[in-house]
């Protein structure tokens, strides 16, 4: 990047917060999977005003801007290319929790607040922010919004689209759009915030947000439940839904081998007992309240009688509740330790999942007999992490194109989505451009051109290259 631009950036945010040396920039320029590595000047503004100054400079000089929050995207979304021409805009210094309003049940936060820090802060005020997932200790609110993050409680509370009541965004020309009124009802025209949520940094930089809060659940019942097949897991889901209604907050499906791998790779995380007697396990959570109906134990008792459930461990304490979730949330980390996993993040109508698994795994194994899938996900949301490895060899990566082709063909054939949570980023861009409805894609491109005529926002991600 030319020296003049670097000087302007230093004047905008302070010399200390413009990083140009490899040693200083390196940690920002590699993603969680270590697959994507870029090159850029790293700029670390402290507030919205400074973000606006940086983006204005970028727009005037036609310099690409890559927003980055916690850097936990699994699709290379917050890593620039290796040209060295871009500004990596780190939002992590915007980390203030500005206002916890327990009457409106909302919180106003800056984009760089770490998700887990938000959990702790609102808990102190007797409130609950429901978005949660394995990377909560690093992922930040701006990244969660820009990816429309989901996680383990979508079943009851929805994803970031459902949890956001207002945004502040620095537009690609540097202007600041502030819409932080925190209203639950507002029918004055288009809901513009929804354009920015899930836009993966291609339309502007999110700097602040108003998010919904909930009362702390009075209690939780959680169980690890062994079943014979995904089909039985779907039956159990149906029974839990019927019995617990809105109090069913989590319903995760995991292959037995995922649990075993967590314990092998992260020995501090114990399993509640043997798990190899069932090929699949469900982590089910029901939140209690005075009118929440039958307990999880009663629901599972009936499912035992119906032959749907083969084994179950019911958490007997808060410690066990946390330990069960720790197992589930550590699967990606355990997989990463053995390496060589191709991440997929698909969604389907729930009833189609057992048949999809059956057909797709069979097709893949016919083509690649050595493959070793790691299958788990948010069954209650119809979302599967259909991860394909070839441990310990690198064969899965060498055959990535063919594996993805079969996986996505089977997904699209059933009207599913190739990205339920993680977004498109760099990893899935080519497939997304081929598979997305052409009219939807045309509209997305038009919106991007309207807001960002110079094409500075996160180029090479999600949308086609500008001509
Ligand atoms: C172990 C593990 C488990 C995970 N589990 C889940 C899960 O259950 N559910 C789920 O949804 N995801 C999951 N993820 C994926 C990831 O954590 C989420 O996508 C998360 O929301 C990304 O947040 P981040 O702060 O790390 O964003 P980053 O990775 O920094 O950025 C993500 C995208 O948002 C853009 N962006 C970042 N900040 C801004 C901003 N302020 N304004 C505009 N654009 C911005 C970036 O350019 C990039 O395109 C998981 C990841 C890991 C590593």
TrEMBL record:
The record, for Pfam families, names: FAD-oxidase_C (PF02913), FAD_binding_4 (PF01565)
Cofactor(s) for this UniProt protein: FAD
Which positions fall inside the FAD-binding PCMH-type domain?
A: 35-216
Which PROSITE patterns does the entry mention? Answer: FAD_PCMH (PS51387)
> What InterPro entries does the record tag this protein with?
FAD-bd_oxidored_4_C (IPR004113), FAD-bd_PCMH (IPR016166), FAD-bd_PCMH-like_sf (IPR036318), FAD-bd_PCMH_sub1 (IPR016167), FAD-bd_PCMH_sub2 (IPR016169), FAD-linked_Oxase-like_C (IPR016164), FAD-oxidored/transferase_4 (IPR051264), Oxid_FAD_bind_N (IPR006094)
State if Protease is listed as a keyword.
Answer: no
Q: Which GO terms describe its biological process?
A: respiratory electron transport chain
* Record key words, sorted: FAD, Flavoprotein
Q: Which family does it belong to?
A: Belongs to the FAD-binding oxidoreductase/transferase type 4 family.
- The identity of this protein, by name, is Oxidoreductase
- In terms of superkingdom, the source organism counts as Bacteria
Q: Which GO terms describe its molecular function?
A: catalytic activity; FAD binding
């Amino acid at each position: 990047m030319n020296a003049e631009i670097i000087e302007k950036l230093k004047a905008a945010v302070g010399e200390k917060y413009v990083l140009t040396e490899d040693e200083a920039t390196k940690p920002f320029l590699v993603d969680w999977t270590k697959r994507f590595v870029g090159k850029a000047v790293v700029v670390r503004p402290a507030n919205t005003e400074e973000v606006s100054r940086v983006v204005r400079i970028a727009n005037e000089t036609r310099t690409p801007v890559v927003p980055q929050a916690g850097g936990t995207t699994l699709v290379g979304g917050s890593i620039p290319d290796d040209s060295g021409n871009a500004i990596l805009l780190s939002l992590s210094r915007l980390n203030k929790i500005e206002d916890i309003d327990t009457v409106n049940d909302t919180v106003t936060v800056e984009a760089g607040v770490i998700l887990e820090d938000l959990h702790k802060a609102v808990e102190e005020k007797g409130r609950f922010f429901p978005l949660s997932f394995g990377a909560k200790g690093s992922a930040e609110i701006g990244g969660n919004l820009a990816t429309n993050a989901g996680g383990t409680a979508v079943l009851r509370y929805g994803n970031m689209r459902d949890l956001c009541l207002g945004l502040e965004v620095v537009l690609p020309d540097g202007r600041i759009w502030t819409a932080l009124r925190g209203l639950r009802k507002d029918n004055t025209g288009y809901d513009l915030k929804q354009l920015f949520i899930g836009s993966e940094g291609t339309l502007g930089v999110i700097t602040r947000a108003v998010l919904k809060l909930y009362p702390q659940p009075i209690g939780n019942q959680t169980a690890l439940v062994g079943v014979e097949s995904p089909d039985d897991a779907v039956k159990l889901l149906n029974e839990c839904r019927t019995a617990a209604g809105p109090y069913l907050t989590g319903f995760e499906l995991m292959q037995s081998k995922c649990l075993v791998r967590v314990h092998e790779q992260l020995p501090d995380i114990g399993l509640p007992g043997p798990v190899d007697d069932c090929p699949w396990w469900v982590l089910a959570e029901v939140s209690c309240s005075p009118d929440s109906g039958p307990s999880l134990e009663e629901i599972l008792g009936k499912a035992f009688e119906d032959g749907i459930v083969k084994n179950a461990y019911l958490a007997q304490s808060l410690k066990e509740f946390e330990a069960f979730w720790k197992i589930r949330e550590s699967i990606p980390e355990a997989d990463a330790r053995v390496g060589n996993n191709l991440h997929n993040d698909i969604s389907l109508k729930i009833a189609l999942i057992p048949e999809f698994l059956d057909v797709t795994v069979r097709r893949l194994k016919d083509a690649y007999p050595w493959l070793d899938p790691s299958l788990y996900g948010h069954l209650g949301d119809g979302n599967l992490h259909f991860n394909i490895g070839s441990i310990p060899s690198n064969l899965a990566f060498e055959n990535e194109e063919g594996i993805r082709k079969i996986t996505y063909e089977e997904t699209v054939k059933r009207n599913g989505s190739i990205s339920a949570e993680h977004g498109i980023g760099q990893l899935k861009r080519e497939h997304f451009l081929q598979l997305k409805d052409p009219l939807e894609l045309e509209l997305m491109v038009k919106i991007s051109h309207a807001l960002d005529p110079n094409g500075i926002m996160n180029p090479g991600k999600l949308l086609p290259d500008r001509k």
